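Feature request disguised as a bug report, sorry. It would help if multi-protein outputs had a clear separator. Right now it looks like this:
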Amino acid sequence: MDQQSLVSLILILITFALYIGISVYNRAKVTSDFYVASRGIPPFWNGMAIGGDWMSAASFIGMAGTVMVLGYDGLAYIMGWTGGYLLLTFLLAPQLRKYGRFTVPEFIGDRFDSNPARLIAAIATIIISFTYIIGQLSGSGVVIGRLLNLPASTGVMIGVVVIAIYASLGGMKGVTWTQVAQYMILITAYIIPIVFLSLQISGNPLPWLTYGNVVNELGALDRELGLSEYFAPFEEGNKAQFLALLFTLMVGTAALPHVIVRFYTVTTMKAARWSGAWALLFIALLYLSAPAYAAFSRFVIMTEVVGSPIDNLPGWTEAWLNTGLLEIADSNGDGVLQWEELVIHQDIVVMATPEIANLGMFVVGLVAAGAMAAALSTAGGLLITISSSFAHDIYYRLMRPDATDGRRLQAGRIAIVLSTIAAGLVALDPPGVITQIIAWAFALAGGTFFPVLFLGVWWKRMNKQGAMAGMLGGLSVTLGYIFLSMAGITFFGIQDTGAGVFGVTANLILVIVVSLMTPPPEQRLQDEVTDLRYPEQMTYKDGQVWMNDNSDK
């Protein structure tokens, strides 16, 4: 093992010990600890935990590279994910928090007074979260394997062991405070390299203010080389795919069960809104940095690598050529590297930036620890969601309503361990690349849940028949389109990553048509929906709005 690998390994092991220590200290003792952290997380820290939950391996490693490779077209990811959080924060999260349940399936089951709807929602939640966690475990395997010179499969299994330990011990309470620590590590690791790179290129340490000038210079370089301009829209894809992907990511974000459940961990509707606001701020720190990463990295490659003699490239390129993530070919035989002779994998950008900026072994190791934090933080939230869907919604609410707290905790922990092992086995040979698998999870979440949650909160006429038809139809159409697209059959040029646009459309039509063709829900359920539109100090009942007795407390 070389010196760099040793430093990276030490930093990663220190962070692993920190995560497990936090989980042991915050070990869940009752079911409310395990599922919703006893609803006692302050909004600021919950916002930071949401940021950690959200920053997956794909966001940390892949987003900047996607923007660098795709240019304008890669912005669909940033716009979609950000827009989804706005939808969730303003239109769903406070209302779901006021309803006061533990999980998304529990909200759907009680809102429509239907155990079949609860079961469908629980199974769909497990499918969505399982799909998502395969991508996260694949990411952890790639990071560990690349940095420690181990097979990716070994890296996956290391990630499986760490996640299973801290998620099963701490439950939502432990995972929340672990995600806070993981956010601090990952955002530090993300920001430091780009600050130094900005300082080296522009003389200004604030990359968010300087990369615009670099983009202009890239445009001039592109024109000089006869390339399509970096910031020209729809040069790398078609407009339909761009819009479908943006829409899929937006509705998927607003409907992901492991994201929604984070809003159940605070005390009030107001705290839920503030959690969303803080989360947007913390997420923005990374999202606003990703285009800067893309611009600076492309600038360095175009000015310091392209045009250089192939036998005299910068030293940092050698290690990445060995990984296969950077490829060169002297196709015209002139001994000088041309842009067209260079193939750059999108995962290289963030991981290689510390070496490009010559920041030393500690920062390279810190970025490795940050990438692992990103993969583990999202995986922890996903495992809690899978666990609660099985142990709370299926085992407790449908099979054993008389189960004790101890039994429920035991069922939850067993579900975490088993689902981690199962996802790890699938992740050893993943069915797609990381960003593709995660996009499927967003498509499935949007196609199955978004219309049902949105109309379930804002349309009191919606009934259980409409909810079940919508979820089953949306899930089936989304899955069907993903398989069709993988087989080469697409409509309007929309790829599998944009499948959510078809699933949401089918879901919406089915919910409205079936609800209107079947009897309306009973008045009690309609009053509960109307009540969600009022602040917590007020209750809607029997056609009137009542002030709560403890509203002054």
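(second protein starts here, but nothing in the output says so)
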Amino acid sequence: MRIPCPFCGPRDAHEFAYLGDAGPKRPDPAAANAEDLFFDYAYLRDNPAGPHRELWYHASGCRRWLVVERNTLTHAIAGATFASAAEVESEIAADSSGEGAR
């Protein structure tokens, strides 16, 4: 499997370290049910079959965190972006849809 690093170009997956699902957000420790939220965050993860957004660290390359869009059934990679850019994009999408409004 080759991962298209936005900085280094396509690289073998052995250069990367897999962290997991890019979706879960760290809960607010000041929340009233913070203990339950942290349990869910740390231990309860989905195992989807199909397209999935994952965090990968390019340990043998540019040492940047990436969000890789990979199909877990075929290992086909649809794209990769720097994690910092993906985080900004998801916040903008949440704000425009009203999900980020507090």
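Even a blank line would do. Unrelated, but nice: Helices lie at 34-43, 83-97.
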